[in-house]
Design brief:
This protein has helices at 17-23, 28-36, and strands spanning 7-15, 40-46, 49-55, 61-66, 71-75, 81-90, 93-99, 106-112, 115-122, 125-133. It is mainly beta. The protein has one domain: Calycin beta-barrel core domain (Lipocalin), CATH 2.40.128.20. It has a 10-stranded antiparallel sheet. Strand 7 and strand 8 (106-112) form a beta hairpin. The protein starts with 6 loop residues before the first strand and ends with a strand. The model has no long low-confidence stretch (mean pLDDT 94). InterPro entries: Calycin (IPR012674), Fatty_acid-bd (IPR000463), ILBP (IPR031259). It comes from Fregetta grallaria (White-bellied storm-petrel).
């Protein structure tokens, strides 16, 4: 049975965000700004339904979805694109596949103790973020 990810997580660290954003064709000014942000995550996980809020001082991004059900994700706040997105479990990892203009786009969330790990991919780039559970 997959873990329940419900909780509030504070930003700890990130690696390779600038290259990840460059692969998404984000302009240099916005890349620099995003690299300075320290996002928090709030996850509400109820059965096969999840809400993942990424919270920053600039703006919040909310994903509200049912596991295993493809939906159109509007990534306008991120890079102006739309994707056909499916989120499902692979063992203890929550895996998102985002089909659209960019290849190999998606992410993985998993827990190690009280830390939430996130690997975001696009093309050949991987951005790694770590968050600490606070409640």
């Amino acid at each position: 049975m997959p873990p329940n990810l419900t909780g509030y997580y504070r930003f700890v660290s990130q690696e390779n965000m600038d290259n990840y954003l460059r692969a998404l064709d984000i302009n240099v000014v916005l890349r620099k700004l995003v690299c300075l942000l320290k996002p928090d995550k709030e996850i509400i996980h109820t059965g096969d339904h999840m809400v993942i809020r990424t919270i920053t001082s600039l703006r919040d991004y909310v994903m509200d979805f049912d596991l295993g059900v493809q939906f159109e994700e509007d990534l306008g706040p991120v890079d102006g694109r739309k994707c056909q997105t499916t989120v499902s479990w692979e063992g203890d990892q929550l895996v998102c596949e985002q089909l659209g203009e960019k290849s190999n786009r998606g992410w993985r969330h998993w827990l190690e103790g009280d830390q939430l790990h996130l690997h975001m991919t696009v093309e050949d780039e991987v951005c790694v973020q770590v968050f600490q559970k606070v409640k």
